[in-house]
TrEMBL record:
One of its GO terms (molecular function) is transmembrane transporter activity. The chain crosses the membrane at residues 21-43, 55-74, 86-108, 114-139, 151-170, 182-202, 241-261, 273-294, 306-325, 365-382. GO terms for cellular component: membrane. It is found in: Membrane. Its main location: membrane. This is Uncharacterized protein. Keywords: Membrane, Transmembrane, Transmembrane helix.
Length: 384
């Protein structure tokens, strides 16, 4: 009679180890990213958040990112006190109002709600981005860190793939420029509502089960908020941090331009197809970068050097190509570019390659400083 009970206990023990294991936690984190920034990115990949004109979306994006600049350090410090899990939970609350506001603005032009949604999205993004990054890097064993990071990021891209597939299905007949179907937003809002319950399933560090038997160590929770603030400000006196600031700017410098580019030239269904292709390419690049970071066949210094050369070459070539095409289209307008248009292949290739470079360069452990520093100045001079 005791054998079935013993087997049940073993099954429960294995299930517990899987649930608290680093791979499952990476999957959970990826699904949270799927439902929150994954959906947000899918809408941004359409250009102008799927709206007909980019102006109001550019304004609300400014609000969102200004809030993130101010509150992200605060969220990180608070996370050291209450735990990064709860920072991620907070980070899943504010994306839904923003998506709902896009729907309301598309239907009734309620721009005040869009501004409110931008504020809630900024607050939640300030919590989610540092919270999920800290867990993604801090939870896994060293030998599995690249794999876990790639799972997290690839599942986040899966959110974009599914969202853009839905967008494509609902807008396949829209062969003119303008806004996407308003029903698209409702489907995406439902998906984003899943983020909160998923975040509650994350394990706190003390309950995590790792192969090496160790527990992840984060900052000392007994430190006061004031002492953590002093420690944060001290980071800006470090040479390597100061050198990385232009790199951080470079990684996102052209995103606004790319959104305006899609909204201005491409039909709705061409934008949704482009967003779908970008999401697939992004997911593949995340998996490949995870493999690259975990490979044991090369020294870290060799890895870093090859990454720098690759990013420098691709970043520069894509930007020059984009500049040439933009100048040509400014002189001789291609009109509305549909997926059947002769100009679509070239316009899409630029967009996809640019997003691929961003995907690769933004990996948490990818060394890309020289390429980014060079490209920051290239962007600055050519964008004036």
């Amino acid at each position: 009679m005791s054998q079935p009970s013993h087997q049940t206990s073993d099954v429960r023990g294995r299930a517990h180890d899987v649930f608290r294991g680093t791979i499952f936690q990476a999957v959970l984190l990826g699904l949270i990213s799927f439902t929150q920034p994954g959906i947000w990115t899918a809408m941004n990949n359409l250009g102008a958040g799927g709206q007909a004109e980019p102006y109001i979306i550019n304004a609300v994006n400014v609000i969102t990112f200004v809030i993130m600049i101010v509150l992200s350090p605060v969220a990180s410090m608070v996370g050291n006190l209450i735990g990064m899990k709860w920072i991620v939970v907070i980070g899943t609350i504010g994306y839904v109002p923003y998506s709902a506001a896009l729907y309301c603005n598309s239907m009734w032009g309620t721009q005040w709600f869009l501004i409110f949604g931008a504020v809630t999205c900024g607050i939640s993004a300030s919590a989610l981005w540092p919270g999920e990054a800290a867990i993604a890097v801090g939870y896994p064993e060293v030998a599995r860190r690249g794999t876990c990071i790639s799972i997290w990021l690839a599942l986040g891209k899966l959110g974009s793939i599914i969202a853009t597939a839905i967008q494509l299905a609902l807008n396949k007949d829209s062969n003119t420029t303008g806004a996407i179907s308003s029903s698209t937003y409702l489907v995406l809002v439902v998906i984003q509502c899943l983020g909160l319950p998923l975040s509650l399933l994350l394990s706190p560090p003390g309950k995590l089960v790792r192969r090496d038997g160790r527990k992840p160590v984060f900052a000392n929770a007994e430190r006061s908020l004031k002492s953590q603030l002093r420690g944060f400000l001290a980071q800006f006196r470090r040479r390597e941090v100061l050198l990385l600031i232009p790199a951080f700017i470079t990684a996102q410098w052209g995103v606004t331009y790319q959104g305006n580019y899609m909204a201005a030239y491409f039909t709705v269904r061409a934008r949704t197809l482009s967003g779908f292709i970008i999401a697939v390419v992004g997911a593949i690049s995340n998996v490949l970068s995870g493999w690259w970071l975990d490979t044991r066949h090369l020294k870290r210094t060799t890895q870093a050097r090859w990454s720098w050369y690759f990013l420098l070459a691709l970043f520069t070539l894509v930007w020059i190509w984009n500049l040439v095409v933009q100048e040509r289209w400014a002189k001789h307008s291609p009109g509305e570019i549909d997926w059947s248009s002769a100009s679509y292949g070239e316009g899409l290739a630029i967009f996809v390659l640019y997003r691929y470079v961003i995907c690769f360069s933004c990996r948490p452990t990818t060394p890309f400083l020289p390429a980014s520093l060079f490209f920051f100045f290239l962007f600055f001079f050519f964008s004036r």
